[in-house]
Specification:
Blueprint: H1 6-9, H2 13-35, H3 42-66, H4 76-83, H5 89-95
Helix pairs in contact: 2-3, 3-4, 4-5
Length: 110
């Protein structure tokens, strides 16, 4: 991540890191499902994709709910998901120099 981004200045950069950890865990669970695809234990085969999907969805919704603007009180991650192309919303959020909603410089979140 570029130093001086809005997320870094507002002290919320760690939230994107936690999102990536959650998505990594989700991916690892999907990989485990593929690895054990031939397993005779049907419950494991059902639990792994369900767990992977649950972890991924929770990580996504946690990110969009937790990143807040200290100026306008908005949720820039949710704004980016709604207004931007699916291929660029995360990049815009990660590299923004100001709040993607109100363009205010970074302030601590209350």
């Amino acid at each position: 991540m570029v130093r001086g981004t809005w997320l870094e200045q507002s002290g919320q950069r760690w939230k994107v890191g936690a999102f990536f950890v959650g998505m990594g865990v989700s991916g690892a669970l999907f990989a485990a499902m593929v690895f054990w695809m031939t397993a005779s234990d049907e419950m494991r085969f059902l639990k792994l994709p369900l767990a992977a999907t649950t972890v991924g969805i929770r990580a996504f919704f946690w990110l969009i709910a937790s990143v807040r603007c200290g100026s306008c009180g908005g949720r820039p991650a949710w704004h980016a998901v709604q207004k931007l192309d699916h291929a660029v919303w995360l990049q815009v959020l990660m590299f923004a120099k100001a709040c993607p909603i109100c363009a205010a410089p970074a302030q601590p979140v209350r």
